[in-house]
Every structure is written in C-alpha cells, then in structure tokens.
Design a protein that fits this description.
- By secondary structure, this protein is α+β, with helices and mostly antiparallel strands.
- The chain is 22% helix and 36% strand.
- It has four helices and twelve strands, in the order H-E-E-E-E-H-E-E-E-H-E-E-E-E-H-E.
- Strands 1, 4, 5, 6, 7, 8, 9, 10 and 11 form a nine-stranded mixed sheet that branches. It has a three-stranded antiparallel sheet with strand order 2-3-12.
- A hairpin with a 2-residue loop joins strand 10 and strand 11.
C-alpha cells in the first residue's frame, strides 16, 4: 500500500476508533513557578480554563484509573482507551494508541459540548523526564513539525513541563497547533495533549485542557 494511501486509511480509522532541536521560551524556568501569562501565539494564556463540571477522571472508581486525578469540563466524558481487536489489530493498535514512546490511556471527549479531545498518554519507560517525554512525543509523527517551544509550569499539585508546536499534515498540507503537558506521579510520566483540527479551534480545546492540567491532584 502506498504511504499516503495507508496514512489516509489510518487517519480515517482514527476518527472512527478514537473519536476523531527545539526553541526554549525561557518562561517560568524556576521549578514550581507558574509560567507568566503569554497573550497570543503560541500559548494563548488569555484563553481561560473552563468551569469544572461534576465529574473527575484519573482516580480510583473513574473511567481512567491513573496516578493523578483531574476535573472535567461540563459535558466532557472520559473513557479508557482499548487497543482495537480483530484482523487489523496489530496495525491499528500501534497507529492509534502509540506515539513517541507513549501509549494512550485515557480519552476525554468534548464533542457534545463543541470541543474536541483531551488525551492522556503514559510513557513506556516510566521514569522518563517530562521534557524528554514531550520531545519524543512531538517528534513521533509523520507530519512535519516546527516551532516547538517549552516552558516549566505548575500543574495543580505538580511541577510540569509544557510544549507547543505546529504540525503540517502530510496528507492535506494543513497546519495545526498542538499543546502538551507532562508530569511525573508515583513513578510514572504522563502526557496530556490537545490540538486544533479541521473542525476544532484553540478556543474549543484549550479551556478543558487548562481546567484538567491546572487541577491535577495526586489520585491517592
């Protein structure tokens, strides 16, 4: 199968099955200090966190058992991600659930509220440093990556590292921006990700992402 044809098939199946040397900014370099407000591109800190709904994810008894818990925006629903089964399981499982040394563990679906998706990934090597995990995650795609910027932030109860980048699709040549934040909790590095898409803008995904990452707590 030609590379572009195969990629197109995987992209279509991703929607069906899962819902649809870098530059340093120097912001917030002191450990634990929140990053300063950065209006406009690339961080868009002026986009406020969404108000919390009644549900949380990550802790015991939630759809996504993780070593951290986080609040969900109203209308956003969390579910654990399972590797597809059947004839294409090996191909699809790798393509849809793994990226840059991480495996997706949780997906939070906000389409009913006009948003996109928030995904939580766990590193395959648990003790990978947050920035190293982010560098590998951003690079783990066939899309053309540019404009990576990193900063150290405080994410709820945790010190964290955050990255933003631009991805140009090898299929459509469309450019979109992504954001990801990595923390270490109970010996596991977790990566929270959102991105713009063909039908989602930053104001659709950033509020729920900010709510979740700023409300991170030890699942206990």
């Amino acid at each position: 199968m030609e590379r572009h044809t195969r990629a197109a098939v995987l992209a279509a199946l991703t929607i069906g099955l899962l819902g649809g040397c870098a530059e340093d900014t120097g912001a917030g370099q002191a450990t634990g200090r929140p990053a300063p407000e950065a209006t406009g591109e690339p961080w868009y800190d002026e986009v406020a966190a969404e108000a919390a709904g009644n549900d949380t994810a990550g802790g015991a008894g939630t759809p996504c058992p993780l070593p951290v818990s986080f609040p969900l925006a109203k209308g956003w629903k969390a579910k654990a991600v399972e590797v597809p089964a059947g004839e294409l399981a090996e191909l699809l499982g790798e393509a849809l659930t793994k990226r840059g040394g991480t495996t997706v563990r949780c997906e939070v679906d906000g389409r009913s509220s006009g948003g996109g998706f928030l995904r939580v990934w766990a590193t395959d090597q648990p003790t990978v440093a947050p920035r190293t995990a982010l560098e590998a995650f951003v690079a783990g795609t066939e899309d053309k990556i540019s404009g990576q910027q990193f900063r150290d932030v405080r994410a709820g109860a945790f010190d964290a590292t955050e990255v933003t980048w631009l991805a140009t699709s090898t299929l459509t040549d469309e450019e979109s921006r992504g954001w990801a934040l990595a923390v270490q909790a109970e010996g596991q590095t977790l990566v929270f990700t959102v991105n713009e898409g063909l039908i989602t803008e930053r104001t659709d995904v950033l509020p729920a992402y900010r709510l979740a990452t700023r409300g991170l707590a030890d699942a206990g």
